[in-house]
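tmp note - 3D-(3,5/4)-trihydroxycyclohexane-1,2-dione acylhydrolase (Decyclizing)
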Amino acid sequence: MNTIRLTMAQAVVRYMLAQKVEIEGDVKPLFPGVWAIFGHGNVAGLGEALYQAREQLPTYRAHNEQGMAHAAIAYSKTLNRQQVMACTASAGPGATNMVTAAAVAHVNRLPVLFLPGDTFATRIPDPVLQQVENFHDHTLTSNDCFKPVSRFFDRITRPEQLLTSLPQAVRVLTDPVECGPVTLALPQDIQTFAFDYPEHFFAERVHRQRRQSADRHELESAVQLIRQAKKPLLVAGGGAHYSGALPALDALVSQYRLPVGETQAGKGALPWDHTQNVGTIGVTGGAAANALAAEADLIIAVGTRLGDFASGSRALINPTAKLLSINVASFDAVKHKGQALVGDAKLTLEELITELEDWQPEESWIEQAAGLRVDWNQTVDKVTTDRGTNLPCDAEVVGAVNRAAGERDIVVCAAGGLPGELQKLWRTRFDRGYHMEYGYSCMGYELAGGVGVKMAKPDSEVFVMVGDGSYLMLNSEIATSVMLGHKIIAVVLDNRGYGCIHRLQQFCGGPGFNNMLEDCLSVDEGAPKTDFAAHAAALGALSEQVGNIHALEQALERAKAADRSYVIAIDTDGSTDTQDGGAWWDVAVPEVSECAEVNTARERYEAYKARQFQNL
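out:
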């Protein structure tokens, strides 16, 4: 057997280089790049290995470990999980800074390879700088924080352990069911240890998407269930994108005239003006899809785990409706008392097209869905129109940015009130034109995520819509975007606080407290007014402050013509959101309170809970 002597870190990099993926007939690197912030836990080991491979495997430097991991996650999501970025940081705070991003990837079922440095496996110099010592278990390090937010975790304490660990890591990253973040904790001394690896371990391997056909019995039962339905509603989730099922979805719903509601992850599965697209569903969904969900006798869920925002905390969907869940993961397919149809969405939908033959929903249901769709689109036109004020609401800003976006441009968002407005109001015909991180709804994802999206789709304009709260939480990757030449257009909506949670606080009966800056402890002069345009300029971006929607529209044209990242700040009214559409969300209200408003909110809460229990 021929061998090659490499350090553990060099072997990791060489193995990554050997992994390829076939995408629409083209063979590409599975790992197109690595994000790295070096420290004493990874600079001498993995840093040396990445330097030697820098021509084949680019290494990108970021300004924040969480931010670079968000960029890696957004890159993979934009490419429908077909390529994977790796992220490495030093032992200690550099590593734990990535834990939040690992949770983002885990919740959203997105692949990213985390390679955090770890403490010395030999323990001879313990305790080293930044080492977290555990008094009762010396095998624990701060990297154990990754365990609950990783789909696969391993700590490499001997260089030869890579022979069994790396194939498992890549299996998880490329598996349609297991897909999610992988963490390989790399002790800084073991990174530098050498081993005689078999040469065949580094032979090129081309990965292809695995497609699982539906079980024949489950398929027959599903066909029977659908044929009994008179008022069906299909709900398209993120899995429809990841499986490449969109042409099959279009064919199915067009042939059988099925109304389609989209989740946050599923938005873009059909063009917004497709005759079967009735808008988005759930807590932040549109009025048309939600009205149909409350009356439907069958929900056909495709590639969605039906989280509480999609299901209205189980209080939105007709309690007597049946649920057919088409999902590659049986874990998700059995949720909500669903009848499982486990299989790849593309293959399964194609089979349903054949098996359903001449079945059609009730004609009155088809007409009802069409009417509701027209009404909802008129509502969207109305609420996104410029009212001509100097303090616009979020919906007006969404409308302006949407009008500025081209057919293949992309909007990015994650947290606050904007995801609700965008899910309801953003219109796109491009299947990847809507990028929302709403599984974890992580504040700070937006700007870094925008960089990753731009890297994945360099020919698209990437519009990042972000509130002042999220901007202040994590903005450093604006500098990264300028440094790397990955232009984003960021629109910062400044309502001087956490407006979304302020509104929720009031809905639950509470007074304004610790959310809007005016309701927070501060000096007598109050909290400072942040100059977001000046701040962005200091990070290297072009920027400006605008005062109304007309000025915003003009600024967006300048931003599109610019040669680097452009940030536009606009003051907005944080007290309002789009009331049309939407559904109840289960946010627990105190059973006992001295506040009359809280008691009133509790009564309302209990009424919704009664409906929720009907769906258990």
